[in-house]
Amino acid sequence: MSATSDRTGADAPRVVLGVSGGIAAYKACELLRRFTESGHRVTAVPTAAALHFVGEATWAALSGRPAATETWEDVHEVPHVRIGQQADLVVVAPATADLIAKAAHGLADDLLTNTLLTARCPVVIAPAMHTEMWEHPATRENVATLRRRGVIVLEPAVGRLTGKDTGKGRLPEPTAIFEACRAVLRRGGAVPSDLAGRHVVVSAGGTREPLDPVRYLGNRSSGKQGYALAATAAARGARVTLVSANAELPDPAGVDVVHVSTALELREAALEAARDADAVVMAAAVADFRPAEYVTGKIKKVEGVEPAPVALVRNPDVLAELSAHRTRSGQLVVGFAAETDDVLAYGRAKLARKGCDLLVVNEVGDGKAFGTDVNEAVVLGSDGSETAVPVGPKEVLADVVWDLVVKRLETVGNRP
Ligand code: CTP
Q1: Which range is most confident: 83-87, 156-160, 237-241?
Q2: pLDDT in tens, 362-377
Q3: Which residue has the CA at smallest separation from atom 23 of ligand 1?
Q4: How far, in Å, is the centroid of ligand 1 from the Cα of 243?
Q5: Pocket residue to mutate for ligand 1, from 339, 354, 401, most atoms within 8 A of Cβ
Q6: Strands 89-95, 14-19: pairing kind
Q7: What's the CA-to-centroid distance between 368 and ligand 1, angstroms?
Q8: How would you list the strands of the sheet with 89-95, edge to edge?
Q9: Among 75-89, 200-214, 400-414, whose mean pLDDT is lowest?
Q10: Where does a domain end: 187, 218, 235?
Q11: What does the pLDDT read at residue 81?
Q12: Same structural domain for residues 390 and 344?
């Protein structure tokens, strides 16, 4: 299918891209492009202020349709009602503090704010503003109000802001916003906000255990499954802390990412984040052993001398520790297991040994699971349940895990 026919296909998802007046408006062009190139029908709704940064012609050219700003343009088509009603997804990027305040209070003085009031589809808001504005109690309360209503408000990124200052408030990268929106649309447009009010912790990637300043013991985990878990949880309304070990992936939008490297660092970050968490999912491949000794200078080869064997010591088992010391009543702990054979039998034994509530068992080897975009698994429950997840995107497996977590939180009486 050509890009043009994608764009005009009657069953293509309809996305409204709201753009409010911030310097990051230029980044919304890239987001728009990603949507249209992947077959979405996009209507751009820039605010009057946004047009100071990027003109109407750019929005119209990139979306292939007119971009309206005010409610009295094309009044006979009642755009202020129609655009919102017909959308499968509304995403506002960048969303200024002013736009967020208007959305929280139901103000409707232009086409974008009218659209937000008439939309019955999922709404994703990607804020961009200075750190002081993001941290102001007024903005905090407005964001909390929107999240309570099921609006997905992404966490801004940390980095360079307009001018010379840096801090939290940067628009998340267009790729990250796009992936967050896709996760929302993947669930048929009807994303449950069933993790709203929850704090979940996800570990991802693979730890590296240093031997000397240039060498380490590592593993082949890419972190993709853990990142998919974090992104889908954020799309379902959770506050997410992602403890990421050496994953070379962009930070998912709307997620607080703590970067670590070794198993000991991961343990510390995971235990700290888990203190007030409703659920902890250990998707990281944590090294079971680390070199007993760290050599501060690079180990050199010496002609004619055999290298000394590397002595290893055990790392703490973070999953077992989290399971044994729950920091909140009704807190759920989920583990992952990678097995090459006798997958279910080893999985059951591991579930019992680690004391977790759910164990996602993957079969690995022969190119399965590591580094790929798809996964196949069985999720074992401590209640004896078994949920098979056929081969599919890692986001699909992630959503199955969250479905089971949500159900279990209800069963154990853990309310948000
Ligand atoms: N895990 C952990 N801490 C460790 C090792 C593993 O928290 N030191 C967690 C992983 O994040 C994963 C689960 O435990 O959720 C399963 O890891 P795996 O290495 O497969 O389990 P092991 O108990 O090490 O079993 P095996 O004997 O197969 O190595």
Answers
A1: 237-241
A2: 887 765 656 666 678 9
A3: 350
A4: 16
A5: 354
A6: parallel
A7: 18
A8: 41-46, 14-19, 89-95, 123-127, 152-153
A9: 75-89
A10: 187
A11: 77
A12: yes
Ligand 1, closest atom to CA 316? 8
Ligand 1 atom with least separation from CA of 338: 20
Atom of ligand 1 minimally distant from the CA of 203: 11
Clarify whether residues 223 and 280 are in a common domain: yes
Ligand 1 centre and the CA of 284: distance in Å? Answer: 9
Residue keyed to tokens 């003109």: 55
CA–centroid distance, residue 337 to ligand 1 (Å): 7
Domain encompassing residue 178:
9-187
Mean pLDDT value across residues 393-398: 82
Q: Could you read off the pLDDT of 199-255 as tens digits, one per residue?
A: 999 999 999 999 999 999 999 899 999 999 998 898 888 999 999 999 998 888 788
In a domain, 1, yes or no: no
Question: What is the three-state SS of 36-104?
Answer: HHCCCEEEEEECCCHHHHCCHHHHHHHHCCCCCCCCCCCHHHCHHHHHHHHCCEEEEEEECHHHHHHHH
For the CA of 336, the nearest atom of ligand 1: 15
- DSSP assignment, residue 387? E
The pLDDT, as a whole number, for residue 366 is 66
Question: Is 344's pLDDT higher than 50?
Answer: yes
Task: Measure 221 CA to ligand 1 centroid, in angstroms.
Answer: 13
Is residue 16 located within the same domain as residue 53? yes
Name the residue at shortest CA distance from atom 24 of ligand 1.
288
Q: Which residues are catalytic?
A: 219
Last residue of a domain, one of 187, 208, 235: 187
What is the predicted pLDDT for the residue at 3? Answer: 33
Domain co-membership, 251 together with 350: yes
Cβ burial of 382 (10 Å; 0-12, 13-18, 19+) is middle
Q: Give the count of domains, the chain.
A: 2
Residue 84 maps to which CATH number? 3.40.50.1950
For residues 254 and 341, state if they share a domain. Answer: yes
Ligand 1 site: residues with CB under 6 angstroms?
Answer: 263, 282, 284, 286, 288, 315, 317-319, 335-338, 350
- The answer to whether residues 247 and 219 belong to one domain is yes
Question: Residue 342 maps to which CATH number?
Answer: 3.40.50.10300
Q: Is the pLDDT of residue 98 over 90?
A: yes
- Whether 409 contacts 278, CB under 8 Å: yes
Nearest to 315 by CA among 219, 229, 222: 219
